[in-house]
Design brief:
An eight-stranded antiparallel β-barrel has the order 1-3-2-8-5-7-6-4, surrounded by four helices. The chain has 229 residues and is an alpha+beta fold. A hairpin with a 4-residue loop joins strand 2 and strand 3. The termini are far apart. The longest helix has 21 residues. The chain is built from eight helices and eight strands.
Length: 229
């Protein structure tokens, strides 16, 4: 059985792209992007065992930006992923960044030695009112790698433990071969995330070495529904 692989597709729609798309309004271009993603899902549903497949785990419109981000899972190779890229290019969308990801739970267990009971498969649930995307860049100046690894394990145990014990909606991905983490969180009160991040071990004990960029997200389907009314 082929190993599944995870990727983040960051799809940006700039003025040049709109010109290539016959100057369609942004919403029309985003609808076409969504159609490409939906078509990939349909193809994968009809594939036989052993044939390339692609599953869309998340898809979002970045709030206030002409930008769509989606987390995809491939199996039996990257053919279906490449078909998505080809079809996006065919409609004039070519500013696409594809970043390989690793399940945070797998990384936490195999690299950070976190308790396996905390590293169960992620529920991928982001169903609350406000969703945010945080890109974390982690450094350890002034610390040894071993001390940093212990602190990172403490961080992972805290976050994964909260997800198991409470109704926290958080989905985490490690950027492959980098000290970077992608955090997708969903809350009912948009101000909750500040309090959540401020209490985490990496921020409390190593905050000067943590870069954090946050963007608000909307469900892509919900964005299209509202904008089409």
């Amino acid at each position: 059985m082929s190993k599944t692989l995870l990727y983040l597709l960051d799809i940006k729609i700039d003025g040049t792209c709109l010109a290539r798309c016959n100057r369609d309004p942004l919403i029309k271009v985003i609808e076409k992007v969504n159609d490409v993603l939906l078509e990939s899902v349909k193809r994968s549903e009809n594939q036989k065992d052993g044939e390339p497949k692609c599953r869309i785990i998340h898809k979002f419109k970045v709030t206030g930006e002409p930008r769509v981000v989606t987390v995809v899972e491939t199996s039996e190779g990257e053919v279906e992923l490449e078909k998505i890229i080809s079809e996006l290019s065919a409609i004039g969308v070519i500013d696409i960044t594809c970043t390989p990801l690793t399940d945070y739970e797998m990384f936490a267990q195999t690299v950070l030695d976190v308790d396996p009971d905390l590293c169960k498969p992620a529920p991928r649930t982001l169903g609350k009112k406000y969703t945010h995307w945080n890109d974390l860049t982690l450094d350890y100046q002034g610390m040894t790698w071993e001390n940093f690894k212990i602190l990172w394990a403490k961080e992972a145990s805290t976050v994964l433990g909260l997800r198991i014990k409470t109704d926290v909606n958080v989905d985490l991905y490690k950027i492959k071969n980098c000290r970077k983490v992608m955090v997708l969180s969903s809350v009912d009160d948009a101000d909750e995330t500040d309090a959540m991040f401020s209490k985490l071990p990496l921020f409390v004990e190593n905050g000067h070495n943590v870069g954090n960029v946050c963007r608000a997200l909307q469900s892509l389907d919900e964005y299209i529904r509202k904008m089409s009314q």
